[in-house]
């Protein structure tokens, strides 16, 4: 059993690095930490970065999770190889570029690239947000898979992830700590990153951002609305390179695992996606860049 301690980052390829960075800072509100060797690092909390844009092919490169220590990393390598997955130890350069001590990368059964990292650099100074969007932290990541039941089985069999709720055939929402979900898998034809989430301080932040985004002509993909599963008030919007961002506020916490039974929601049922009955079209996905050679794993 591989114990995921936290989410670490999303690494995403940007064909137009400048536009991607400008959007992440001026619109989303993140701090640009540094830009070097064609990689821009963006920050929302104590993590060195939660989003890295790599100049080049457009698409998601990998999604990172934190493990406790190097023993846990070795054990994870063994377990994933036993499961028949392609696992690669990260190079020194790869670790440096990710601002982690060590890492490994694997492809999940659906083709999503995942990094397991140890020692993500912590930055103790306050975040210099570019806009007062009210962001408190990097909240969760959502991947795509054609079969969410299988995806749920994968993450709960090999990892400590627990299913918090299902949207039947459409989504599996999983927790790795008391937060209702830090990892979700949505149904999609191809591997990819459905969205990256940032928690904000209040409902006022969500609503203020909604007006701000509309004023700036940003495409609102869904919301404002409220998910019945997590009770979070959400707003999804589309950034450059097809990357969907989400602000949300008020996510449910599940403190007592034994007392919680996952619920099943009919995606066609009233209010199953949005309790406020807003449009429920699925948000778009930034597709996975396939690993073609060693270089693309770095
Ligand atoms: Fe989300």
Describe it.
- Helices cover 20% and strands 36% of the residues.
- It has 298 residues and is an alpha+beta fold.
- The protein has two domains: 6-122, 2,3-Dihydroxybiphenyl 1,2-Dioxygenase, domain 1, CATH 3.10.180; 135-287, 2,3-Dihydroxybiphenyl 1,2-Dioxygenase, domain 1 (Roll).
- The protein is globular.
- It has helices at residues 17-28, 70-82, 92-98, 148-158, 203-215, 294-297; strands at residues 6-14, 31-36, 39-43, 51-55, 59-66, 87-89, 102-107, 113-118, 135-145, 162-167, 171-175, 183-187, 192-200, 220-226, 233-238, 244-249, 263-265, 286-287.
- Strands 9, 10, 11, 12, 13, 14, 15, 16, 17 and 18 form a ten-stranded mixed β-sheet that branches. An eight-stranded mixed β-sheet has the order 2-3-4-1-5-8-7-6, sandwiched between helices.
Summarize the structure.
This protein is of the alpha+beta class.
Main sheet attributes: strand count, strand direction, barrel closure: 10 strands, mixed
Which structural class should the secondary elements be placed in? alpha+beta
Count the beta strands. Answer: 18
- Rg, please? 18 Å
Instruction: Specify the number of helices.
Output: 6
Q: What is the string of SSEs from the N terminus onward?
A: EHEEEEHEHEEEHEEEEHEEEEEH
Strand fraction equals 35-45%
Low-pLDDT regions = none
CATH homologous group name of the largest domain? 2,3-Dihydroxybiphenyl 1,2-Dioxygenase, domain 1
CATH classification, class level of the largest domain: Alpha Beta
């Amino acid at each position: 059993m591989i114990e995921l301690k936290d989410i670490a980052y999303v690494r995403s390829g940007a064909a137009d690095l400048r536009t991607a960075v400008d959007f992440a800072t001026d619109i989303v509100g993140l701090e640009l930490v540094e830009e070097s060797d064609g990689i821009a690092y963006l920050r929302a909390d104590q993590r060195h970065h939660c989003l890295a844009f790599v100049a080049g092919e457009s698409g998601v490169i990998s999604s990172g999770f934190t493990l406790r220590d190097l023993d846990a990393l070795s054990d994870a390598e063994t377990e994933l190889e036993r499961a028949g997955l392609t696992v690669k130890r990260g190079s020194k350069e790869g670790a440096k570029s990710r601002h982690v001590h060590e890492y490994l990368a694997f492809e999940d059964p659906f083709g999503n690239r995942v990094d397991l990292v140890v020692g993500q650099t912590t930055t103790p100074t306050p975040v210099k947000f570019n806009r007062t969007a009210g962001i408190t932290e990097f909240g969760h990541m959502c991947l795509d898979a054609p079969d969410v039941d299988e995806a749920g089985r994968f993450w709960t069999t090999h990892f400590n992830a627990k299913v918090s709720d299902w949207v039947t055939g459409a989504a599996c929402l999983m927790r790795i700590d008391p937060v209702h979900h830090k990892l979700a898998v949505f149904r999609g034809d191809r591997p990819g990153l459905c969205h990256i989430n940032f928690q904000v301080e209040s409902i006022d932040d969500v609503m203020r951002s909604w007006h701000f985004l509309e004023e700036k002509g940003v495409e609102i993909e869904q919301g404002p609305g409220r998910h019945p599963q997590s009770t979070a008030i959400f707003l999804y919007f589309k950034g450059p390179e097809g990357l969907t961002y989400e602000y949300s506020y008020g996510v449910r916490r599940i403190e007592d695992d034994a007392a919680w039974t996952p619920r099943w929601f009919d995606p066609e049922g009233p209010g199953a996606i949005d309790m406020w009955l807003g449009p429920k079209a699925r948000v778009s996905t930034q597709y996975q860049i396939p690993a073609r050679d060693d270089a693309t794993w770095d």
